[in-house]
Design a protein that fits this description.
single chain; 385 residues; alpha+beta; outer membrane lipoprotein receptor (LolB), chain A; Phosphorylase Kinase, domain 1; 21-stranded mixed sheet; 6 helices; globular; disordered N terminus
């Protein structure tokens, strides 16, 4: 069974967007401004948290995707998630948000509606969805003081290297940018950057960098923006009724009281997931040197599958298992993927700047291994199944 290189890239990007959400789709419009004054990171963050929240935000946005070498991307594909695109965004006062990336292949959509975050890929007519905490992104509540922010940054600095608040301009606005780099468990991730409007405290840009790279492999930035109320129609869910849905459950099956290395509730959680699926669950205690952390159920095309996570932090591995008819995270027929053998079964592999995807079918079950790891680690995980 062959797999489509473009679709695997699209699906990997969709997962990134689902996890990242549309938080960057908030900004402000005005005449071009000068960089703000230099100040400590804790003070710049506290000012952002204390700034008055807008009634709503809308405008233009630009998405850049350099996950794979341009030579591997078919010319003329025109898919927004695959090759990047410009688009629009809307964030309503009640917390609903929509980001639209426009392309000849159809408009990709990132949607936040209450406690549901989803990404719609028009090329495969697929919606990727995950439950998120219900809340209003424009409702900041009482802002913590500088000392409290400093303590939080100190805890974050135990695992990440933080830059100063770097003054500059983004989308014509005075802005601060912080660079965050993992000190361990970072996988292939080199760093991430977040920029926010110095006056209003709203995100303007988010970027992800691979190890050793100076240019971002993924970037989402506002380019033209407006404050003001947003109409209900602009944040309405927009995807075909017949779209295929990949739904990740909102509550992991792992139980409270789990230890760091060998979760006590994990055996019961795995048994609970096994009862919910119609095929044998492959969930060894360890793969590629990484311990099992969680087990969840997922819904794909109405079929129940499983998602098993190994390791922690950004270097974790995810193993998706689903009935072969449900199609897993990929589908379609096209050459372009690297073929390899997993214990006699033909598998297909996609290596990107941020990680690796390995996929194969065995005994009527699709297995997809995804992680910010080199190909050798993903292949070892596949063989451990």
């Amino acid at each position: 069974m062959t797999r489509s290189l473009p679709r695997l890239i699209i699906h990997a990007t969709a997962v990134v967007l689902v996890l990242a959400g549309a938080a960057v789709a908030i900004a402000s419009r005005s005449e071009a401004e000068a960089p703000p004054p230099a100040k400590p990171l804790a003070e710049a963050v506290q000012d952002a948290l204390a700034a008055p929240a807008p009634a709503g935000v809308s405008g233009r946005i630009e998405f850049t995707n350099h996950l794979v070498d341009s030579a591997a991307v078919p010319s003329g594909d025109g898919n927004a998630l695959l090759s990047g695109a410009e688009g629009r965004f809307w964030v309503a006062r009640d917390g609903r948000a929509r980001l639209e990336l426009q392309s000849p292949a159809g408009d990709a959509q990132v949607l936040l509606d209450g406690d549901r975050l989803s990404v719609y890929d028009p090329a495969s007519n697929t919606v990727y969805a995950i439950a998120v905490p219900d809340g209003d992104p424009l409702d900041r509540g009482a802002a913590p003081g500088v000392a409290a922010v400093q303590r939080s940054l100190g805890r974050l600095a135990r695992g990440f290297a933080l830059s100063d608040a770097r003054p500059g301009t983004v989308a014509g606005q005075s802005a601060y940018t912080v660079r965050i780099a993992p000190q361990h468990d970072g996988g292939l991730l080199g760093a991430a950057e977040l920029a926010w409007d110095a006056a209003n405290g709203v995100p303007l840009r988010a970027a992800v960098y691979a190890q050793g790279e100076r240019e971002p492999v993924l970037e989402l930035k506002a380019t033209d923006v407006d404050f003001g109320a947003v109409a209900d129609a602009d944040v309405a869910v927009r995807h075909p009724d017949d779209a295929r849905v990949v739904q990740i459950d909102d509550v992991p099956a792992a139980q409270p009281g789990a230890t760091d290395r060998a979760p006590l509730g994990e055996r019961a959680a795995a048994a609970k997931v096994q009862d919910a699926i119609a095929f044998p669950l492959a969930a060894p205690a360890e793969v590629a040197g990484l311990p099992r952390r969680s087990v969840r159920t997922v819904r794909i095309d109405g079929e129940t599958g499983a998602l098993v996570t190994y390791g922690k932090g950004l270097g974790a591995l995810m193993v998706l298992q689903a009935p072969a008819g449900a199609g897993g995270l990929a589908g379609g027929d096209a050459p372009g993927l690297q073929e390899l053998s997993i214990d006699g079964v033909t598998a297909h592999e996609l290596a990107t700047a941020l990680g690796t995807v390995v996929q194969f079918e065995r005994d009527g079950v699709d297995y997809t291994i995804v992680g910010s790891v080199p190909p050798a680690a993903a292949e070892a995980a596949a063989r451990a199944l």
